[in-house]
Structures are given as C-alpha cells and as structure tokens.
Amino acid sequence: MKLDELINKHKLNISKEIKDLCELGIEHMTQSVDPLHDQKHVFNLHELLDKFLTHEKSVSKTAINFDVLLPAIAWHDIWKSRRPQTYSMRKYVYEQIIEGRGSVKLFRKHTKSLAIPNDIYKKIQYCIYYHPPVSDRVKHRKKFRPDKLEAHLLKDIDALAFWSWNRADHFKATYCNDSGVFHNPRMLQICQWIYKKSPKHLDHYYFDWSRKEYEKRSTKMMKEAKRIIDINCGILLQKNQPLKHPLLRNDNIHQPALHDNDVCRLFSR
Q1: What does the alpha-carbon distance between residue 150 and residue 1 come to, in Å, rounded to a whole number?
Q2: Which residues contact 15 (CB under 8 A, 6 or more apart)?
Q3: With CB atoms 3.0 to 4.6 Å apart as the test, which of 74, 115, 142, 182 could cross-link to 25 if both were Cys?
Q4: What are phi and psi of 182, to 5 degrees?
C-alpha cells in the first residue's frame, strides 16, 4: 500500500513537510541494495498499519501521532538498505544489533536541513532506534508505555512483516534455486540462527491484533523454514562436505551459530 492510499483511506491529517519527509525516505529506499529492505518493505508496513487501524479496537487513531509514525516507517531500515546481504554469521548478528542506531545516523544525515519540529524529530529517531527485535537495548520493550505508542506500533508491524508469505517467497526466489537449495551454502548458518532465535525475539507484541496475526502466521512459516533448512543440511551431508561449523554438525543440527555471550562480545568491540 502506497503512502497516498493509506493517508486517503484513513483520512490522516499530516502536514506537507511530514509527507515530504516520508516520500524522501521512500525515495532513498528505492535505491536499496538489500532486496528484502527496499520500498516494497515500506509499502508492506503501510498495509499492516492499514489492517491495524481497521481491526485493533484498543487504540484510537486520534491517539497515534502520524507525524512521528509515518516518517519512522519510511526511514527505519535505511541503514540496511545500504548494505548487501552478508554471508558472515558474525557480521550478520552484529548488523541486527547495530541497525537501529545506523538508521538514525543516516536519517539525521539526509534530513538535517529540513524544517521538522524538534520534538517530532526526536520521537521519529526514538522509533527508528528501538525498532529492531534484536537490539543492544531491548529493556524498553518489556512494558507498554502510552508515551511510546508509535515506537511500540512500529515494532509490532515490522516484526509481523517478517511473518509474511510474500516476503518468504521473495527470500526463496532471491537466495534459493527452485528446489530450495541456497545459492550460497553459507546462508544456511544465518537461517538456522534465525530459526532458533525468531520465536524468542519475534513473538512479543503489544497489541491484541498483532498477537493474533503472529499466531495465525508463525506456525506454518516455521515449518517451511525448517523444511528449507533440512533440505540444505541434507545437501551438505550428501556431498560429504566437512561440517566444521558447530551449527552444521549432524548431531547438533539446529544449535544457534552464536551464543548470547558471543553477541555481547561482538557488540562490545
């Protein structure tokens, strides 16, 4: 769903300056080198927001500051959009941790000359900074805070975007052949880590509608993820390739590639 369609459907009252800010972010996302984080991802979040506004009864539209939320949606993955997909396990985990602050820095760089009210500007940055499900600062998400409504909402719809069949199909079309075998075998390590960590980091939602959507989507998608992982593990074993990485050993096939302490050491560097 494009921005104008969302605004018109829900009769959202945002200023020209804020709309221009959103469109600038979307324009930058069209230049993405990451096929999973481009303008289509922004439009997907617009569609999820549309469903939230239609079905979530606990939140009034008047309670949401769309001058904050819509620019945060447009800009939240700008840092990822500048980075091609890595096949390094450690680099991948590091990027998941650091992406919020990376996007805030790019947001500041590209918008510092714009006339955005300072309080709005700071709230947009807060939403962007704290949106990643794997973050260096996750304690803020443990309890719902009404004054952080837009940040909570961005977190929910961005996490739900992960559980999208369109996104899953796009991933397979980009990184797998028709049989589900990865073009680059190193992708297996990353996918196994995601498979292990996803239930922990992507099953916490603030709103009833989000939780119900997660429950509808996640079980079947986890089964499909396991199917793809098993296919690729089987290929490596058939080829008698040395499984040096502990994640890929036959007796330990679904262990995470990095332990939590490893992640902490990565981030402290």
Answers
A1: 19
A2: 67
A3: 74
A4: -65, 140
Angle (deg, nearest 10), helices 89-111 and 118-129 = 170
DSSP structure string for 209-227: HHHHHHHHHHHHHHHHHHH
* Block residue for tokens 């602050």: 101
Q: CA 22 to CA 195: how far, in whole Å? A: 33
Q: Is-contact 181 97, C-beta < 8 A?
A: no
Residue 189 tokens, joined: 């390590």
* Residue carrying the six token digits 């080198």: 33
Token digits for 99? Answer: 């992406």
Token pair of 9 as six digits? 């459907």
Structure tokens at 150: 């837009």
**pLDDT tens digits along 213-264:** 998 998 899 999 999 999 999 888 777 655 444 444 433 433 334 444 443 3
Across the range 209-215, mean pLDDT stands at: 92
On average, the pLDDT of the chain sits at: 86
* End-to-end CA gap in the chain: 40
CA distance 215 to 47: 18
Angle at 91 between CA 85 and CA 225, to 5 degrees: 60
User: What six digits make up the tokens of 223?
Assistant: 């089964």
Residue 95 tokens, joined:
């990027």
**What pLDDT shows up at residue 247?**
44
* pLDDT 10s digits, 151-175: 999 999 999 999 999 999 999 999 9
Amino acid at 84: P
Range from 2-16, 47-61, 137-151 carrying the lowest mean pLDDT:
137-151
